[in-house]
Specification:
With 121 residues, this protein is mostly beta strands. The protein contains no helices and eleven strands.
Length: 121
Amino acid sequence: QVQLVESGGGLVQPGGSLRLSCAASGSIFGVYLMAWYRQAPGRQRELVADITSGGGTNYADSVKGRFTISRDNAKNTVYLQMNGLKPEDTAVYYCNADVKEKLTSSFQIYWGQGTQVTVSS
């Protein structure tokens, strides 16, 4: 019913930058908390950053000062600007959103399909 579509992943050298985007579409009344997670091979999925509908943000210690999460509520889209990338940032990145649907007036959590970020020299 609701889809989250991610874009912006790719291959970059250490110290480089990427910007990830995730757009929610469908029968949406409102989008509340949005977040980015990542999962590297052999590792657990971890929270990278999240952002409230009012713009309050939270970051993992490992990305503070390098990554910035933002959102455009009119477009139901969340972004992750990644600067100063390191090899240890290599992972599949997933967006996540808490959505209130028009048809049911209920809240559900949705996940994006994942996008690969590879940082390599």
